[in-house]
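Postdoc handover notes: sequence design on the structure in folder B. Input C-alpha cells:
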C-alpha cells in the first residue's frame, strides 16, 4: 500500500501499518488510518526551545498539518459567525505564506448571492495530498448573511487558491488517498470534486486502508456501535457488525485490525482498548487501560469560603491510539480539572490524579509496559521513530488563591522499554489547552490555546539548555522482557538499544494486570471519552468571561466548565 500525501506516506515492508513520511504529517491523524505514527526522527532533547510561534485572530481545534516545508492551519474568528480561514507558514521561519478566507464568485451557488462569500468554519485541520489541500467546512444555509459557505473544498497547496467546492455534501469527516476524497457515504475525484460513488447513509468515516473504507454509526435502538467496511472503489458493503463498545473515543486502522479506544456505559465505568479484525469486524482482543488515582466527585471550597464552592468532576479519559509496527500506545488520565490541579481536600491533602501511557502488543493485546506520572496528560501520544511523545501539564503547588496552574511539558519515552528519555518544560502559558504533537523532521508542531487568548502555533526543536521538571513519582512498569516483543522491535534510526535483560533505574517489572492495585479499582462514569476531541472545547468562550485572571478567581473557576 502506498498513501500519497504530497511527499508520500507508506507502510513499512511486512509491517501492515501506515506511517507518515519523514518530511510530512499530512492529515490530523498523521495517516489516512489515523495511526499517529511517523518514520520521521523527532527532537532528541534533552530540552525543547521555541524556534518560532505565530498567532492569528481566530480559534481553531487540533494540531497543524505539515507537508513540503509548509505548516497548514485552519480556524474560525471569535465573533460567533460560522466563517473560517486557512493559513500557510514556512516550517523554518514561521513566515506566513498565504491566507485564504474568500470564496470566489465562480464557486458560489445562485442561492448564495446574499451571503458574504467567506469560507465556512473548518471542522478539522487541512489534509494535504499531492499538490492540493482539502478541508470540510460548516456554514449556515443561505440567505443568512454573516456566515461562511458550507462545503468540501480543494485548495492549491502552494497558493491557497480554491480549485473546487462541493456545497451539497454538508460537513462530513473526510480522508484523502487513492486520488479520491472519501467521506462516510461516498467518494469524490480528488482532482475535480466529481462524485465517483455515493450512498444514502449517515455513516462517519473512520479511515481507509488500501482498497477498504471503514465507517461507524450509532444504533440507538440496540445501543450499539455499527462498524461497516466498504469497497473503497465502488462503495459496496463488505461486512457490517454491531458491537457493544460503549462510548467510542478514537480509532486507528492497519491492514489487519481496527483499534478502538472506549469507555463503558455501565454504572461502574471502565476504559478499554479493542482490536477488531478488518476481515469481518470480529474481536481480535480487548485489554483494560484503567485510569489510576482516586475517582469520586468532590466539593472544593476556595480559601474555605462558602461563596466560592465548586464541584470537580473526576471523569476518566482515554486518548486516541498511536500504532507502530509492533505496539499500540494510549493515554489515560484520572480526571480533567483543566485549570485547578491538583484539588485540595478538606484535610489538606491532594487528590492523586495520574496519567498513564500504556504500550500494548498490537497483535495479542498484552500490556508490555506503562509509564505512570502525576502530570496531567493533555492530548494523544505521537510515535516517531523509536520515541513516543506526549504533552502534559505538570502540577505546581497552589498559590495564595488556591490555584495550581501547572507547567506545560513534553515527555519523550523509549518505545521499547517505556523508559523516560527526557521531559522538558514548554515556553507556553500554564493555563493553556495544548494539542497532540505533530512530528516532522526533528521538530514538533502543536497548537497552544491560552485561556482568554487566541491560539498560538508553536514550532519546537531540541536544545541543550532548558527548564527541568521535577517529575516526582513517575515510573515505568514493564513486563517480563523474555517475550516475542524482542523480535518485533524495529529501528530505522540505528540508535543504540538497551540490552533486553537490563532496565534503567526508573523501570521496574510489571505486576500482573489482574492483581495490580491500579487495575483492581473502579472509575466514575465519564462524560467525555477522548483526549483529542477538538469540538469538545468551546474555543470562543474564554474571551466572554476572562478579563482579569487575578482579579476574579471565583468567576474564572465558575466559567471553567465552558471549556470542557
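Designed sequence:
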Amino acid at each position: 500500500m502506498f498513501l500519497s500525501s504530497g511527499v508520500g506516506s507508506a507502510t513499512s515492508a511486512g509491517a501492515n501499518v501506515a506511517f507518515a513520511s519523514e518530511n510530512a504529517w499530512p492529515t490530523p491523524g498523521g495517516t489516512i488510518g489515523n495511526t499517529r505514527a511517523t518514520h520521521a526522527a523527532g527532537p532528541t532533547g534533552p530540552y525543547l526551545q521555541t524556534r518560532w510561534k505565530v498567532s492569528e485572530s481566530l480559534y481553531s481545534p487540533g494540531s497543524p498539518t505539515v507537508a513540503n516545508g509548509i505548516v497548514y492551519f485552519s480556524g474560525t474568528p471569535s465573533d460567533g459567525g460560522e466563517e473560517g480561514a486557512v493559513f500557510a507558514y514556512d516550517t523554518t521561519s514561521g513566515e506566513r505564506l498565504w491566507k485564504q478566507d474568500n470564496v470566489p464568485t465562480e464557486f458560489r451557488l445562485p442561492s448564495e448571492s446574499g451571503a458574504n462569500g467567506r469560507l465556512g468554519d473548518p471542522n478539522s485541520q487541512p489534509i494535504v495530498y499531492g499538490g492540493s489541500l482539502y478541508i470540510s467546512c460548516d456554514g449556515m444555509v443561505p440567505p443568512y448573511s454573516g456566515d461562511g459557505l458550507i462545503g468540501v473544498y480543494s485548495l492549491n497547496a502552494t497558493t491557497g487558491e480554491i480549485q473546487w467546492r462541493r456545497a451539497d455534501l454538508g460537513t462530513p469527516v473526510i480522508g484523502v488517498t487513492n486520488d479520491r476524497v472519501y467521506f462516510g457515504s461516498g467518494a469524490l475525484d480528488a482532482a475535480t470534486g466529481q462524485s465517483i460513488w455515493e450512498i444514502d447513509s449517515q455513516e462517519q468515516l473512520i479511515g481507509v486502508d488500501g482498497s477498504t473504507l471503514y465507517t461507524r454509526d450509532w444504533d440507538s435502538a440496540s445501543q450499539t456501535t455499527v462498524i461497516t467496511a466498504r469497497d473503497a472503489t465502488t462503495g459496496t458493503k463488505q461486512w457490517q457488525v454491531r458491537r457493544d463498545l460503549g462510548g467510542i473515543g478514537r480509532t486507528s486502522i492497519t491492514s489487519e485490525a481496527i483499534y478502538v479506544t472506549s469507555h463503558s456505559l455501565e454504572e461502574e465505568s471502565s476504559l478499554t482498548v479493542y482490536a477488531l479484525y478488518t476481515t469481518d469486524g470480529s474481536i481480535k482482543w480487548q485489554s483494560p487501560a484503567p485510569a489510576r488515582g482516586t475517582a469520586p466527585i468532590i466539593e472544593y471550597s476556595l480559601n474555605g469560603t462558602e461563596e466560592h464552592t465548586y464541584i470537580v468532576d473526576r471523569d476518566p479519559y482515554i486518548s486516541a491510539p498511536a500504532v507502530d509496527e509492533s505496539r499500540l500506545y494510549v493515554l489515560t488520565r484520572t480526571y480533567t480539572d483543566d485549570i485547578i490541579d491538583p484539588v485540595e481536600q478538606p484535610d489538606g491533602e491532594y487528590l492523586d490524579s495520574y496519567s498513564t501511557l500504556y504500550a500494548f502488543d498490537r497483535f495479542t493485546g498484552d500490556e508490555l509496559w506503562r509509564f505512570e506520572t502525576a502530570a496531567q496528560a493533555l492530548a494523544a501520544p505521537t510515535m516517531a521513530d523509536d520515541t513516543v511523545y506526549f504533552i502534559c501539564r505538570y502540577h505546581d503547588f497552589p498559590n495564595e488563591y488556591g490555584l495550581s496552574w501547572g507547567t506545560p511539558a513534553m515527555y519523550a519515552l523509549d518505545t521499547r522499554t517505556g523508559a523516560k528519555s527526557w521531559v522538558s518544560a514548554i515556553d507556553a502559558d500554564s493555563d493553556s489547552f495544548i494539542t497532540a504533537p505533530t512530528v516532522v523532521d526533528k521538530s514538533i508542531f502543536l497548537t497552544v490555546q491560552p485561556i482568554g487568548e487566541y491560539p498560538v502555533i508553536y514550532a519546537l526543536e531540541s536544545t541543550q539548555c532548558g527548564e527541568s521538571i521535577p517529575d516526582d513519582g513517575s515510573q515505568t512498569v514493564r513486563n517480563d522482557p523474555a517475550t516475542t516483543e524482542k523480535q518485533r522491535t524495529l529501528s530505522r534510526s540505528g540508535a543504540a538499544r538497551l540490552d533486553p535483560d537490563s532496565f534503567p533505574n526508573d523501570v521496574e517489572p510489571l505486576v500482573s494486570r489482574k492483581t495490580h492495585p491500579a487495575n483492581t479499582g473502579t472509575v466514575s462514569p465519564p462524560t467525555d471519552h477522548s483526549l483529542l476531541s477538538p469540538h469538545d472545547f468551546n474555543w470562543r468562550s474564554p474571551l466572554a468571561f476572562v478579563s482579569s485572571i487575578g482579579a476574579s478567581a471565583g468567576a474564572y473557576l465558575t466559567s471553567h466548565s465552558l471549556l470542557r
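Context for whoever picks this up: Residues 1-15, 338-351, 483-564 have pLDDT under 50 and may be disordered. Don't rerun without checking with the PI first.
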